[in-house]
Amino acid sequence: MTTPDDRNVFGDPLEPCSRDPETGFLRDGCCRRIEGDHGRHELCAVVTDAFLDFSLAQGNDLITPQPEFEFPGLDPGDRWCLCLGRWLEAVEADVAPPIILEATHEAVLRDVEPDLLREHEYDGSI
Question: Domains, the chain, ranges and CATH?
Answer without folding.
Answer: 1-126 (3.30.56.110)
